[in-house]
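A sample follows:
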Amino acid sequence: MELRATDYETVDRTAIVTLSRPHRGNAWTGRMHAEYKHCIGQAESDPAVRVIVVTGAGSAFCVGGDSAALAGHADRGAYDDGLAAAGEPAPVPGTGERGEADRPVDPGYGISAEFDHQLAFHFGLSKPVIAAINGPAAGVGLALACFADIRFARPGAKLTTAHGKLNLPPEFGLSWLLPRHIGLTRAMDLLLSSRVFLTDEAHQLGLINQLHPADELLDRTLAYATELASSVSAGSLRASKRQAYLDLHRGVGDAVGTSLELLNEMMAEPDYRKGVEALREKRPPEF
């Protein structure tokens, strides 16, 4: 796919996916949506990639849905994801669904039916996703950041759920995500008010893991990604992520049972032997 609204590159064992419409604050469009999935799929299928970093070009992360697209939704009186115009298969008439024969391969799908939805597919990925929030994130932009596993940000960047000022519901699962990230009471404040809050407050709430100056943000994020890729096996990264998100949808008994099954399976793998050898020799593992 030709990339017009995103950029993709790899650094060491990290894939960097950049939302790249800086003249529009990296506002989300159908084209960007399709390209983003393509880039994530490319990183997911590349065995050389261990970690995925998502950021924005210029001074914004993603200011939400493009205003021109929002105006188009208002004119139509309904939502249009714009993916047909972006090269995605058109919906099957009368169903709103795209034909299975023409449906593109979706990254993260097939792990759990709960994850086989827009943006929720992040939970089915085998590789950690880190959001480097370099500027404002609103609506779908905030949701995208919240679907990442870890969030780093620059201080003073504006965040908002945005939907309440547009007579819309919380977008792309924010009503599910925010209570789990920061607790129901705090989430309800952000969801009901759609107020602007800064990354500094988000850090205090626990939504942001680390704050770094704007000129250091990407480098510090990549350093963290490199540490993950070098010190933790790919199998453990995958298992940790899968267990965490699957366990949000099941009981503790299932969580314990699965962990014991994986323990037996993974102890038979070469990376377990490498880890034990490194532990005994008091040196970093070589995964």
Remarks:
- The chain has two domains: 6-229, 233-280.
- Residues 233-280 form one domain.
- The CA atoms of residues 142 and 284 lie 36 Å apart.
